[in-house]
Amino acid sequence: MSPILLALVLLADINVAGSIYVNQPTLVTPVTDDEQAAVLGDTNYGLNAEVAFKVVADVSEHVSASAKVCFGCHGFMADMAYFDYTVVDAFNLRVGRFPVPFGEFYLRHDPANHRSATKPLPYEMGRMLRRNQFNLAVLPEPYPDNGVELFGTLRGESVEFSYSAYAVAGLKGDEGTGDLDFIRSRSEYFSDNNRTPAVGGRANLSFPHLPVEGLRWLSLGASGMWGRYDDLDELTYLLAGVDLYTRYERVNLRAEVMFRRTEIPDRPLRFRQEIYDLFTQREGFYLEFDGPLFDRFEWVARFDGFRRVGALLTTSNLEDTDSNILRYTAGFNVIPTTGIKLKIAYEFWRFSEFPVAQIVHTGLVGTF
Questions:
Q1: How far apart are CA 125 and CA 81, in angstroms?
Q2: Left (φ > 0), alpha (ψ -120 to 50) or beta: where does 126 sit?
Q3: What was the pLDDT predicted at 99?
Q4: Over 90: is that where the pLDDT of 44 sits?
């Protein structure tokens, strides 16, 4: 260890946190063995786990550093490794590898930070049913990337405005498939595969003090992102979304709508259909309610969906150029002691192209 790094470690105020989540998915819909493999995929077939470990060091009044590693269906990954330079609350600089600020969920993707046993469908990763057929949904979380971010918060008496603007390496993909490759985006070096950085931003308007009795908070957000995903630096992707959060008494309400438009190559022989538009579009939404139930219990109810529109590759497992998924979730959590939570959730999946599926998730999460 260098003397400078050792001095920073000794002088810094260091905080450590983390979580461990073990989940057992149980498909309750009767299916054949071959069909079960198609529905569950590799990451949903049996017991799975997510582990996160985070260190935050306050180096000085204006400088802090954060690092986090996580393990899940994507393997080991550096979820964050960055430093923040705070000039004032309204202006901060972040440099390194950080969670890309898109939507309301990106800071809550850790299982310890949300009450549901799984993620909202637009952001789902390893626990999405038939994920191989759809190549996941819109933007699987976590999505960390390397780059620079400017962010800040301006506070008034009755309103707060938060913003972030960033340039990052961007998501990777393949011109041959005409789509993003999320495994490649996480595992193939931590560098850009083309010359064009992805750019984007997020704005959030919050009202912490509302005149309506019982209404504790109201937050409205909007996010956008643009980049190029192929090695030749020619094909673009565009994401946009709006989100809402409010709390009435002890009940939280979260809602979000988002889409991703991905440019495809002008290669007619690769697709089954005649190409009219050189892009595919993915749309997603979720509506979620949750809250405490007595002292040691919690509940969650969620309705979410996903839609894919566009030409299909000749090798695709889908048949319809307009295919969708709807999911209904009901969950119940038990908190036996501080730092331990048992999550139980029932999910009903309705596919436009495939038979319905029902699955029960039983998970145990510990935090420290």
A1: 22
A2: alpha
A3: 96
A4: no
